[in-house]
From TrEMBL:
GO terms for molecular function: uracil DNA N-glycosylase activity. Belongs to the uracil-DNA glycosylase (UDG) superfamily. UNG family. Residues 1-157 form the Uracil-DNA glycosylase-like domain. Keywords: DNA damage, DNA repair, Hydrolase. Pfam families: UDG (PF03167). This is Unannotated protein. Gene3D superfamilies: Uracil-DNA glycosylase-like domain. The keyword DNA damage applies. PROSITE patterns: U_DNA_GLYCOSYLASE. It comes from freshwater metagenome. GO terms for biological process: base-excision repair, AP site formation via deaminated base removal.
């Protein structure tokens, strides 16, 4: 998978990959089409998407978002199987900080989900960032649900003269 800065219109930052064997597929929050029981965070994302835009997804593969210019990236790029945040202190944040800075310099719309992602907010103009709680079951009711990130993002893209995302 490869995505140039020039083709990136939106970035969604999460925390770290799914720790369940076979779930993480290289795109934050995404899972392979074959995964029948979606991770709780992804179910919450799809619930908000339905509420916000009336869109119903049939599987957890988000490669169609990627193909439209949505970068899906976690602050921490790897984790151990069965345990979240096991690789939190091996230098990934320095790399993803640099990615965020570069994306911010290119007027990319940023969806920052959770505290860790929110630490990147200064890299993006206030008019180009949408911050909320993380979609995990532990925090979704503290500001993710009802945040309308998908319609807000598309409104920003339209104002920039860019094609909205088909979520």
């Amino acid at each position: 998978m490869e995505q140039s800065i020039e083709s990136t219109k939106v970035v969604i930052f999460g925390q770290d990959p799914y720790p369940t064997q076979g779930h993480a597929d290289g795109l934050a929050f995404s899972v392979a089409k074959e995964v029948s029981r979606l991770p709780a965070s992804l179910r919450n994302i799809f619930s908000e998407l339905s509420s916000d835009c009336g869109v119903t997804r049939i599987n957890g593969d988000l490669s169609d978002w990627f193909n439209q210019g949505v970068m899906l990236i976690n602050r921490i790029l790897t984790t151990g199987v069965g345990a979240s945040l096991t690789h939190a202190d091996i230098g990934w944040k320095e790399i993803t900080d640099a990615v965020a800075k570069e994306l911010g310099n290119h007027q990319v719309v940023a969806l920052l989900w959770g505290k860790s992602a929110g630490e990147l907010s200064d890299n993006f103009k206030p008019s180009l960032r949408i911050e909320s709680a993380h979609p995990s079951p532990l925090s979704a009711y503290r500001g993710f649900f009802g945040s309308k990130p998908f319609s807000r993002c598309n409104n920003i893209l339209k104002a920039q003269g860019k094609t909205p995302i088909r979520w």
